Amino acid sequence: MQLGLMSQGGRRFGDSDPYGGPGYHIEHEGERSDARKHFRGSLCMAATTKEQRIGSQFYITHFPTSHLNASHVVIGRVLDGQDIVEAMRGRERIDAVKVTRRRDHDYRIDVELPNGSVVPRTVWKTMQVTPDQSSDDP
Q1: Does the pLDDT of residue 136 top 70, yes or no?
Q2: Which pTM value belongs to this model?
Q3: Number of domains forming the structure of the chain
Q4: CATH number at residue 92
Q5: Is residue 119 a part of any domain in this protein?
Q6: Nearest in space to 24 (alpha carbons), one of 96, 131, 117
Q7: Whole-number CA gyration radius for the chain
Q8: What is the pLDDT of residues 87-119, one digit of tens each?
């Protein structure tokens, strides 16, 4: 939480890693010519590693933050409830997010394995042998 700037989240409760690496990442689209800009109410994914990979860290802007354009990826915006976002002061919990519109293209999530190789999420899921999957899995 950066008061007055953004509401930030995406780390598992109790995780000591401040960057919250989920084991998967999405493509960093922030430098593309058609990338969305950081306006008030933008829902953004943070690039938090030295490789500028995007995993579970996200934030919602309280006002335009153009200095973050191209550094992080805007994936959506708040349509209702921005006043609630701006009233957050830390330790709040987001229980649900509803996607009301989606771009008409496939979304690919890659998973980085412990050995450094990267596989599509669909392949990664077939590699899992534990029947007890947590809700945090990609």
Answers
A1: no
A2: 0.63
A3: 1
A4: 2.40.100.10
A5: no
A6: 117
A7: 16
A8: 887 777 777 777 777 777 776 677 777 787 878
Closest CA to 60 of 89, 93, 82: 82
In eight-state DSSP terms, residue 26 is B
Q: Distance between CA 45 and CA 23 in Å, rounded?
A: 15
pLDDT tens for each residue of 1-29 = 455 678 877 766 666 555 556 666 667 77
End-to-end CA distance of the chain: 24
62 C-beta neighbours (distance < 10 Å), count: 20
Question: Distance (Å, rounded) from C-alpha 83 to C-alpha 39?
Answer: 15
Assigned domain for 53 exists: yes
